[in-house]
Design a protein that fits this description.
69 residues; mainly alpha; 1 helix; rod-shaped; membrane; transmembrane; transmembrane helix
């Protein structure tokens, strides 16, 4: 009977530790998802900037072409 509360405490402690590990893993994976989303957003912004620059060049070329006709 004396060992039962100690074992019960150990079980609760083990469950608490396992829960802490699960929370740490979730937080780690959440950080990875956030970093990945930031990376995707940065690439999207860069692509939009490049696309806008190309669109401006195409408009200039069209204006020149129309002027020369």
């Amino acid at each position: 009977m004396l060992f039962l509360p100690v074992c019960d405490f150990c079980i609760h402690l083990a469950v608490l530790c396992a829960g802490t590990v699960v929370i740490a893993i979730i937080l780690f994976l959440g950080d990875k998802v956030i970093k990945r989303a930031e990376n995707i957003d940065e690439r999207r912004n860069n692509n939009r900037t490049k696309a806008q620059e190309l669109m401006d060049k195409l408009k200039d070329q069209l204006e020149l072409h129309q002027f020369l006709q």
